[in-house]
């Protein structure tokens, strides 16, 4: 493996990367669904207005975004949205950096955002719905 940038569209590595990154969002979304009162209470404790709306939005972003990332559909847009969400939630929910656990979560969110930015830059890879859509579009363009 070289350190140079390649124009190839690798298959398995980006797919595995998407699985690993998407998993935390999908599980977190399901966790919020399983504990609505606790999640809304935590949101309210952080001083956010409309905890019910924030709860619904968080589930939509985490579960919806996680599943779209996993499938590799609209990957660059979804990854960008999840990266922004990760940074915002780090500042809102994990800003107590004197608490080691919160500091770890804060930097975990930043690390996830960094990984997501790789998908923004390089896309979903060959094993993705994005690639399938692009392949069909180029086949139609060639036929026309």
Describe the sheet with the most strands: none
Structural class designation: mainly alpha
Q: How much of the polypeptide forms β-strand, as a percent range? A: under 5%
How many distinct folded domains? 1
Q: Which regions are unreliable across 5 or more consecutive residues at pLDDT < 50?
A: 1-6
Description:
By secondary structure, the protein is mainly α. It has one domain. The protein is built from six helices and no strands. Helix 3 packs antiparallel against helix 4 and helix 4 packs antiparallel against helix 5. The N terminus is likely disordered.
Defining key terms:
144 residues; mainly alpha; 6 helices
Task: Summarize, please.
The chain contains 6 helices and no strands. It is mostly helical and 144 residues long. The protein has one domain.
Secondary structure topology:
Blueprint: H1 12-34, H2 36-45, H3 51-71, H4 75-93, H5 100-122, H6 129-143
Helix pairs in contact: 1-3, 2-3, 3-4, 4-5
């Amino acid at each position: 493996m070289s350190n140079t940038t390649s124009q190839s569209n690798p298959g398995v590595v980006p797919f595995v990367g998407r699985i690993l990154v998407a998993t935390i969002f999908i599980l977190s979304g399901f966790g919020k669904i399983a504990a609505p009162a606790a999640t809304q209470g935590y949101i309210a404790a952080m001083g956010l207005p409309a905890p019910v709306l924030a709860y619904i939005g968080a589930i939509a972003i985490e579960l919806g975004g996680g599943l779209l990332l996993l499938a590799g559909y609209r990957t660059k847009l979804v990854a960008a949205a999840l990266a922004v969400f990760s940074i915002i939630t780090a500042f809102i929910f994990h800003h107590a950096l004197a608490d080691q656990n919160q500091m770890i979560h804060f930097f975990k969110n930043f690390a996830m955002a960094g990984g997501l930015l790789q998908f923004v830059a390089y896309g979903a890879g060959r094993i993705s719905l994005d690639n399938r859509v692009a392949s069909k579009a180029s086949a139609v363009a060639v036929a026309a």
